[in-house]
């Protein structure tokens, strides 16, 4: 057959590569600032826009969707064209995808510090940005499948299987998790409430890690590692088993983030079972990658890209072993809400995602610029500095987690808590937080060194924007192919549909009973809707990112019920849009904080936490005393909550502000008795009202 000539589009690869480097530095720098604030809270510079609660989601979004996201698109656009022997379907769609994604990142960088957040972990962006993400993801999908359709290679290589699974699953996750009722341009409430919202969030949250931080990187591993080592993939059959078992099992594992909560126990158990099963396919991928290097291990000593790849695969193996171990209830009882989770996440993010991204950048940039890497020695230095950074980050966090987790649970021989004050456990681990910040600084230094190395590489060569290539036209179908999977690899549309069905099964089995069978979320008659003032205070609490440090669910452990009070019940959260159970306790749990302290205590604590808790690392919130409650939004919020099923009286929105001001006046009058003079329309009054409500409904039932 006659050869056809065409050109690969390297310009789009270069663009995503530069964006990866830029946003990587930004995201890591914000992460370093976040780490430093946990030791020296004054590093928030006493402004609302740089407090830990607001910039922690900025850091996670910048690293996940800006750094890793651009890295995914760089790797996919480079490998997809070469695997399919075709230029991308549309240069225009490639450009729309690139600039649309950068605008989404920019919107996130502006809105999150301003306090526009849904509070759902890894999905904090408000509804206008969610719509933009959906549109740009569709553009990416059209471009990818258009390229697959016009391919010159009949069979789809294993990397493309992972790209297809990534596209369809992220689409499903994003749509289901983003069902919100907008009430303003940058404010919405989730359709789900309480336990159901928690299940949907962690079904999304866990699988965002699975299908954004894992499957596309596995696809890139299957392409770039054999290229770097100049060796074929170890086992085609293992890759088939790895792919289908991974995407089927992964989707079930989300509930292991909600162990010992008021989620139905059957859902928790399903999450545990499938998490343990997940070890097999995860390690199947790691083994397939490492065994691909058989006969090429001598190259690891001299090639920095392979050094990064080996550590990336090792970090993937560690993280995917540790995740199932953390899902065991005995381990989870100690580890959850501690820095163990932080360490676990960063072993994956820094080791697996970061190091593989670095390897691909070091390999692809010289290729598309028609030159060699400026300095292999500098790349090796980056490798060792980055590896030390990971060790300095992770090891102190594991140490801190075990120390704090055991301190939370320790009782004296007389049967009382040995460390009744939560702050005493926080102060004990501050040295480990300092070491974590040093590790982050080392990792960032390595990224800056890479940036210099790649800039010099680009200056040495010249971008081959349209790289000439040739291949035979798509060969005819051979009907005598015996392998069912080989036949499936010829049919991308069918492949996508089957992958979609496989990933839908787990989510439907776990979520549908929770929504359809009322006994899964038993109600409590004494639980009433939030008052207008409490509702406004809750939204301020969400805006300030308090949920990033404080959980709102008391687990049924003796240590927690003694420390905080009665364990949390599912019926207490039926009006919570969104749920606020949290995933990390930098401060104590707040679900039973209502009526525990006088209003004056909360006022002082928010003004300057060290007044009530000497040594506290919580930053001050003086702007809450100066900023007015947005009473103009009260009616819209009450109306929206009624649409979501919260039983406010008919037309209550018309006089809700009257009740708001009346409740505010009672708090202001109480503060005046403590010689505190504050206006009744200030935000601090609303957040005090919300805090004083938390966990008090259940006490009515107890009486």
Explain the overall architecture.
The chain is built from 27 helices and 4 strands. The chain is mainly α. The strands form 2 sheets. A two-stranded antiparallel sheet has the order 1-4. Strand 2 and strand 3 form a beta hairpin. Helix 22 packs across helix 26. The N and C termini lie far apart (86 Å).
Structural class of the secondary structure composition?
mainly alpha
Please indicate the percent range of residues in DSSP E strands (runs of 2 or more): under 5%
Helix tally?
A: 27
Mean pLDDT: 95
Tell the overall outline.
Answer: globular
EC number: 7.1.1.9
Keywords: Cell membrane, Copper, Electron transport, Heme, Iron, Membrane, Metal-binding, Respiratory chain, Translocase, Transmembrane, Transmembrane helix, Transport
Protein name: cytochrome-c oxidase
Transmembrane segments: 21-42, 62-80, 92-115, 127-149, 156-176, 202-224, 236-253, 273-293, 305-321, 341-365, 381-401, 434-455, 493-516
